Amino acid sequence: MESDFDRITFYDISMRPPTEVHCCSPNPWKTRYALNFKDVSYSTSWVPLPSISKVRRGLDLPATRKFADGSDFYTLPIISDPSTNSIVGDSFDIAVYLQQTYPNSGAGNLLPPQKLDYTFSQNQALAVPLSNRTAAGFEEYAQFNINVDAAFTTHVLLMVQNLPFDPATAEQSKTESLRRAGLTNWADLDIHGAAREQLLNSFQDALAELAKLYEKDPSGPFVLGTQPSYADCIVGGWLRMSSVCLPASEWEQLRGWHDGVFGRLHDTLQEEFGQMN
């Protein structure tokens, strides 16, 4: 019989209770989808945002990213797998680890060969650094991850005011978010009126080429039609954040953009791979 000591521990970011409803961090969601895709046994350890750096250091994991000033950017997800005595601390690295360690588990190949020809060129520096990982044999996925992250991060200002912070740590979390963005006032992250409408239009345009990737195989809703892959987890992680943090009317707009490809992808991922463990 399996014990709790045999399970993978998945470290995710806790948000406002009930956490299962409000958890919305995109990179942990990429990992949650991947864990459920591979159907491996795991349990979630919920980490308050202000405690992330302490948890990573406690697991002897260095930061995988740095801010422009060279300081460490500590983030989640992390998995700890007792079956191999492995601790992995980046969402892309975790996907590669799961496929290589559990190649025949769950729904099959998490990283099947495919052409992921989507590029997003941001014209502004991003306050939060992106994960820039590589893995032999999975370069298409690594570059796709970077480009999708850049497209959504460029427009994440639309979502930050609705981040569902846990009231117990809300002020600390806001302070940390401001520090990461290089700002001092939470109100500076509020965007409304014409500026918001302009950013929404930019967001829709940024996702147009990504939508074309999903329209190549009309059997959908995944890039490979009826076959899910980690590419869908990458996009799905950001769609989960959008579903929680965008105002309801704007989330409905996003769901309908580009013939509804993103609404269908989100719904299917949540139904098939969105369970909480």
From TrEMBL:
Cite the InterPro entries for this sequence.
Glutathione-S-Trfase_C_sf, Glutathione_S-Trfase_N, GST_UstS-like_C, Thioredoxin-like_sf
Q: Where is the GST N-terminal domain?
A: 25-99
UniProt cross-references to Gene3D superfamilies, sorted A to Z: 1.20.1050.10, Glutaredoxin
Q: Record's CDD domains?
A: GST_C_family, GST_N_etherase_LigE
Question: Source organism's superkingdom?
Answer: Eukaryota
The record places domain Glutathione S-transferase UstS-like C-terminal at: 189-270
Q: Per its record, how is this protein called by name? A: Uncharacterized protein
Identify the species of origin: Talaromyces rugulosus (Penicillium rugulosum)
Lineage in the entry? Eukaryota, Fungi, Dikarya, Ascomycota, Pezizomycotina
